[in-house]
Write a structure and sequence with these properties.
- The protein is built from five helices and twelve strands.
- The protein has 265 residues and is an alpha/beta fold.
- The strands form two sheets. It has a nine-stranded mixed beta sheet with strand order 6-5-4-7-8-9-10-11-12, covered by helices on one side. It has a three-stranded mixed beta sheet with strand order 1-3-2, covered by helices on one side.
Length: 265
C-alpha cells in the first residue's frame, strides 16, 4: 500500500486562490445582473393605482403634485418619499404606498374629514375629525354650516373636544354654536348663530359642560318669565358659581314701574 504524497504548498495556494477568484467573479456577475435589473427600463414605474378617499382630488391634480417627486425604478423608488409627496397634496391626511410587481405602485389615500373651520375669518385652515388642523380650499367644503373654532396654536384638538361637549346640549334647546374660542388666558367663549355670546369661563369639557347643562335646563323657564323665548338671548355669563346672568332682547336692565331686571339663576 502506497501512501499518497502530500500536496505541495504552492499547489494548495493556487487552488485556494482559484476558488476565491471564482467566488469573486460569481458575486460580480450577480451584482452586475442585479444592477442591470434595477436600471432596466422594463422596471421603470409604469403607473400608479390610487384608491381610498379621493373625493377632493382627481388623477390630474395627483399627477401634477406627485410626478415631480418620483425617482428611480420599481426597485429603487423611495416609498417614504412617495408617501410624503401624496400626503402633501391638499385634503390628503394619510397615504399608504406599496409596490405591485413588475412596475406599478398602489396607493391608498385617506382624506381629511372637515368638522370645523379654524382661525380667523378668511383663513384657509380647517379642523378634521381627529382635531388636526390642515390647509385646504374652504370653497371645496361641501357643508356650508361648519362652526368656526379658534384658539392658541396646537390646541385645536382641545377646542374641538369642548365644542363636541357643549354643542349638543345647546342644540337641544335650538341654540346653535357658530363659533367657539379658547382665549390665551384659558377662558372659553361661544357665539351662537343668532349672534348671542356666552361667557363659559375656564375648565375642562366636563366642568364647562356642567355649567352649560344648568343653563340649558333652566333657560326656557327664565325667558318665559319675561314673555320671551330662548332665541331672544343676547348674552349670558355662566361664570357665576351659583347661577348665570342673562341679557334678553327687548328686556331692559333698568328698573322701571313696568319692567323687572333679569334675575340670576
Amino acid at each position: 500500500m502506497t501512501d499518497s504524497l502530500p500536496q505541495p504548498f504552492d499547489v494548495k495556494l493556487m487552488n485556494i486562490a482559484a476558488s476565491v477568484l471564482f467566488m469573486v467573479c460569481g458575486v460580480m456577475v450577480l451584482a452586475a445582473g442585479f444592477l442591470w435589473a434595477l436600471r432596466n427600463p422594463v422596471f421603470a414605474i409604469g403607473g400608479i393605482t390610487v384608491g381610498g378617499d379621493v373625493a377632493h382630488n382627481n388623477a390630474v391634480t395627483l399627477r401634477a403634485n406627485v410626478a415631480p417627486h418620483l425617482r428611480g425604478t420599481f426597485f429603487t423608488t423611495d416609498l417614504a418619499e412617495t408617501r410624503a409627496a401624496f400626503e402633501a397634496v391638499p385634503w390628503v391626511r394619510r397615504a399608504v404606498v406599496q409596490r405591485e410587481f413588475p412596475n406599478r405602485l398602489r396607493v391608498l389615500l385617506h382624506e381629511h374629514q372637515p368638522v370645523a373651520l379654524w382661525g380667523q375669518e378668511g383663513d384657509s385652515t380647517l379642523v378634521n375629525s381627529f382635531g388636526e388642523v390642515f390647509e385646504a380650499n374652504v370653497g371645496d367644503v361641501e357643508q356650508d354650516d361648519l362652526p368656526r373654532l379658534r384658539g392658541p396654536e396646537g390646541q385645536s384638538a382641545q377646542v374641538l373636544a369642548m365644542y363636541q361637549a357643549i354643542a349638543p346640549q345647546l342644540d337641544a334647546i335650538d341654540l346653535t354654536v357658530s363659533e367657539l374660542v379658547l382665549t390665551g388666558r384659558g377662558s372659553w367663549q361661544a357665539v351662537l348663530d343668532s349672534g348671542a355670546t356666552l361667557e363659559l369661563g375656564r375648565g375642562t369639557p366636563a366642568e364647562v359642560g356642567a355649567r352649560v347643562q344648568r343653563f340649558t335646563h333652566t333657560l326656557t323657564q327664565v325667558t318665559s318669565k319675561y314673555g320671551r323665548r330662548a332665541d331672544a338671548l343676547e348674552s349670558a355669563d355662566l361664570r357665576h358659581g351659583d347661577g348665570y346672568a342673562l341679557r334678553l332682547r327687548g328686556v331692559t336692565t333698568v328698573l322701571t314701574d313696568g319692567a323687572k331686571k333679569p334675575e340670576q339663576k
